[in-house]
Amino acid sequence: MDLCHVPASREKGWYLALMAPNVKGPNYAWLDPSRLYCHPQGLQECVADLLQPFQGDAIDMVAGIDAMGFILGAAAAATLRKGFLAIRKAGHLCVQTVAQPYTDYSGREKLMEVRTDAIAPGLRILLVDQWVETGGTMRAAIELVERLGGVVAGVAAICIENSEGGKWIQERYKCSHCVPPRLQPRFDQHQ
């Protein structure tokens, strides 16, 4: 893996080619972005592309979704000079929380939680995750933020698939992702 090579000519999303395909079978996501996160220029441009649509928007805090959303969310928060809130899978927080059930991309029933003292009414939060496949995880995060009185300022992910859940989110919230329109069908079909 060459962590220094940057293509001389590059378009938005060039760094998507750094992601590695699944070689372990159906219990895993179809792509692994961790190599993209290891590439300094790729990570910087990915975060810049995710934040570009929100330039000038009022954002008070960035929230990342457990676990891979922590990477992009923390990078986005640092870039925006905002605080970062971790939205966790249940059972990891030792403080007062509110929980939300959801079904993840693999069809498993899970529970997500967030600390109750981090979101004040009216706080504008940018939600960040690595991927929005079926939309269940992101929708649970949206429910948690809104139940505590926060406002979803936007949703950002490397890819927001055109699934029923992905479309539901894109119809209701300002969204940003890194997949160029010409490649979106390939990502939706996991090719």
Automatic annotation (TrEMBL):
The keyword Mitochondrion does not apply. InterPro entries: Adenine_PRTase (IPR050120), PRTase-like (IPR029057), PRTase_dom (IPR000836). Residues 56-178 form the Phosphoribosyltransferase domain. GO terms for biological process: purine ribonucleoside salvage. It is found in: Cytoplasm. GO terms for cellular component: cytoplasm. Its EC number is 2.4.2.7. CDD domains: PRTases_typeI (cd06223). Gene3D superfamilies: 3.40.50.2020. GO terms for molecular function: adenine phosphoribosyltransferase activity. Belongs to the purine/pyrimidine phosphoribosyltransferase family. This is adenine phosphoribosyltransferase. It comes from Struthidea cinerea.
